[in-house]
């Protein structure tokens, strides 16, 4: 049996028997589910960018996607082989596997009856397949963490060895063996080329059922799973609170599986999402939001990487495009751009030297992380950081293809009063450096009134194409997609001269 086959069988060791109670599964069920293991994945995304996330899912996974009525959520079906590709999506924050969806749940009239229904619901749900997916997902995360530690230790030992310390040959051999196995396991997720081989191996799971059951039983006897239930609720016609629903449903889940409740140090997080008459039960696949991927040095207004990706995707970057963020802050947008659109050139700039330093540190941290992951020197990223004045950019007229930035809201940065002068000056300078006819800009701001006023005075340079309404930390903000008009930029002195000549002709 090859290393890949062995690693794959370890990953597909998904029978989740617990000490006191197990989900009943027959041998035929195992073979059927393993050969056709498709599940529905739910994902939270930045509000307003549901369509962008849906487009990414269709593009990268080939799956149809449903946008939820509950803002900031999407749902799509995948085969288990695509689970790691789901974790690589750039537009999603958190992931969960759907246990069951009730599109029109019939709530009883009294609180007691509703909560009793939630208690009864726990034993009626199809937990088996979602728990298998959770088990696979957990195995993947453990192997990934293990390989990361091995790579870090390897790098550290190379440094130590250079200083004259001797390595224990047995430790090196053991480390190499573990690293090799971990790499094969990760290949299952990260290398689509072996997808076909994996699909044929999945069917072999039933043949090793007895061995799998025995191992699972031994593991669960030594450790009972800990869990918590998290309830999110929206709607005005509910006679119960989120805490009451989570408490009673969680108690029933605990009784059904014989798990141990733990609100902080838990293994499994069961989700109960309620919106009006829609109820969705799920199991979380992410411990923390996936937007925490690029930034290590934060500022007062650091933008989420998922939102940065959505903004960049709106402007459809093309190969060889020059993309700038003239008010980059900690560099979230250009770093995300350089990571996903490496065939473009990205410039991060800010007038604050501390912001530029943070951006440079974030770029350096990302390069170090990539080097550790790949185990070899990195060639770098197509990005530069520079300090400049947004109203006087050191760039040639018409030299930039895309401008994407998070403009000061006037809350934590700047002021509403200052924006009345800053916004028109920014739009004018952006119009100067942006390429006429093909250039575009994606600008985020919560100061919508000031922005609309500034934009109305620049109608000859910028044309508004689309507006996406988003929620930024509880603030109602807007992302504006602008298109650069074909009109050649005219400097102030030249513009005054043109206007003067026009007035003389009228006389």
From TrEMBL:
<comment type="subunit">
    <text>Part of the heterodimeric THUMPD3-TRM112 methyltransferase complex; this complex forms an active tRNA methyltransferase, where TRMT112 acts as an activator of the catalytic subunit THUMPD3.</text>
</comment>
<keyword id="KW-0820">tRNA-binding</keyword>
<feature type="region of interest" description="Disordered">
    <location>
        <begin position="146"/>
        <end position="165"/>
    </location>
</feature>
<comment type="similarity">
    <text>Belongs to the methyltransferase superfamily.</text>
</comment>
<dbReference type="Pfam" id="PF02926">
    <property type="entry name" value="THUMP"/>
</dbReference>
<dbReference type="GO" id="GO:0030488">
    <property type="term" value="P:tRNA methylation"/>
</dbReference>
<keyword id="KW-0819">tRNA processing</keyword>
<dbReference type="InterPro" id="IPR053943">
    <property type="entry name" value="RlmKL-like_Mtase_CS"/>
</dbReference>
<keyword id="KW-0963">Cytoplasm</keyword>
<dbReference type="GO" id="GO:0160117">
    <property type="term" value="F:tRNA (guanine(6)-N2)-methyltransferase activity"/>
</dbReference>
<protein>
    <recommendedName>
        <fullName>tRNA (guanine(6)-N(2))-methyltransferase THUMP3</fullName>
        <ecNumber>2.1.1.256</ecNumber>
    </recommendedName>
</protein>
<dbReference type="InterPro" id="IPR000241">
    <property type="entry name" value="RlmKL-like_Mtase"/>
</dbReference>
<keyword id="KW-0949">S-adenosyl-L-methionine</keyword>
<comment type="function">
    <text>Catalytic subunit of the THUMPD3-TRM112 methyltransferase complex, that specifically mediates the S-adenosyl-L-methionine-dependent N(2)-methylation of guanosine nucleotide at position 6 (m2G6) in tRNAs. This is one of the major tRNA (guanine-N(2))-methyltransferases. Also catalyzes the S-adenosyl-L-methionine-dependent N(2)-methylation of guanosine nucleotide at position 7 of tRNA(Trp).</text>
</comment>
<dbReference type="GO" id="GO:0005737">
    <property type="term" value="C:cytoplasm"/>
</dbReference>
<dbReference type="GO" id="GO:0000049">
    <property type="term" value="F:tRNA binding"/>
</dbReference>
<feature type="domain" description="THUMP">
    <location>
        <begin position="170"/>
        <end position="285"/>
    </location>
</feature>
<keyword id="KW-0808">Transferase</keyword>
<dbReference type="InterPro" id="IPR004114">
    <property type="entry name" value="THUMP_dom"/>
</dbReference>
<keyword id="KW-0489">Methyltransferase</keyword>
<dbReference type="GO" id="GO:0043527">
    <property type="term" value="C:tRNA methyltransferase complex"/>
</dbReference>
<dbReference type="Pfam" id="PF01170">
    <property type="entry name" value="UPF0020"/>
</dbReference>
<dbReference type="InterPro" id="IPR029063">
    <property type="entry name" value="SAM-dependent_MTases_sf"/>
</dbReference>
<keyword id="KW-0694">RNA-binding</keyword>
């Amino acid at each position: 049996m090859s290393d890949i086959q062995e690693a794959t069988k370890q990953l597909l060791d998904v029978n989740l028997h617990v000490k006191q109670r197990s989900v009943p599964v027959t041998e035929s069920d195992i073979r059927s589910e393993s050969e056709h293991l498709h599940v529905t994945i739910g994902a939270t995304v930045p509000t307003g960018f549901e369509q962008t996330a849906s487009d990414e899912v269709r593009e990268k996974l080939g799956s149809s996607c449903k946008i939820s009525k509950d803002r900031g959520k999407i749902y799509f079906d995948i085969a288990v082989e695509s689970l790691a590709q789901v974790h690589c999506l750039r537009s999603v924050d958190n992931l969960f596997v759907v246990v069951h969806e009730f599109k029109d749940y019939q709530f009883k009239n009294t609180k007691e009856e509703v909560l009793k229904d939630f208690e009864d619901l726990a034993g009626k749900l199809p937990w088996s397949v979602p728990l298998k997916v959770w088990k696979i997902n957990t195995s993947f995360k453990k192997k990934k963490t293990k390989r990361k530690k091995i790579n870090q230790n390897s790098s550290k030992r190379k440094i130590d060895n250079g200083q004259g310390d001797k390595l224990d040959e047995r430790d090196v051999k053991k480390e190499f063996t573990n690293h090799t196995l971990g790499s094969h396991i990760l290949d299952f997720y990260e290398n689509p080329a072996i997808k076909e081989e994996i699909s044929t191996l999945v069917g072999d799971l039933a043949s090793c059922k007895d061995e799998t059951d025995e191992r699972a039983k031994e593991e669960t006897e030594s450790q009972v799973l800990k869990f918590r239930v998290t309830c999110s609720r929206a709607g005005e016609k509910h006679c119960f609170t989120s805490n009451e629903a989570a408490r009673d449903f969680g108690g029933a889940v605990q009784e059904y599986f014989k798990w141990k409740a733990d609100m902080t140090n838990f293994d499994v997080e069961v989700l109960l999402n309620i919106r009006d008459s829609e109820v969705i039960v799920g199991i979380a696949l992410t411990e923390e939001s996936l937007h925490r991927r690029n930034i290590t040095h934060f500022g007062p207004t650091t933008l989420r990487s998922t939102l940065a990706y959505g903004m960049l995707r709106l402007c459809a970057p093309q190969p060889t495009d020059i993309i700038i963020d003239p008010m980059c802050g900690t560099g979230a947008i250009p770093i995300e751009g350089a990571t996903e659109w490496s065939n473009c050139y990205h410039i991060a700039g800010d007038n604050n030297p501390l912001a530029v330093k943070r951006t440079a540190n974030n770029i350096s941290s990302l390069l170090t992380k990539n080097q550790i992951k790949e185990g070899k020197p990195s060639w770098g990223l197509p990005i530069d950081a520079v300090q400049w004045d947004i109203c006087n950019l050191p760039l040639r007229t018409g030299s930039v293809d895309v401008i994407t930035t998070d403009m000061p809201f006037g809350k934590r940065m700047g002021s509403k009063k200052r924006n009345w002068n800053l916004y028109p000056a920014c739009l004018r300078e952006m119009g100067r450096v942006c390429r006429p006819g093909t250039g575009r800009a994606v600008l985020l701001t919560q100061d919508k009134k000031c922005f609309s006023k500034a934009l109305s005075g620049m109608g000859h340079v910028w044309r508004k194409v689309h507006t996406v309404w988003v929620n930024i930390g509880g603030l109602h903000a807007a992302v504006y997609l602008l298109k650069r008009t074909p009109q050649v930029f005219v400097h102030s002195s030249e513009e005054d001269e043109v206007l003067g000549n026009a007035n003389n002709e009228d006389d």
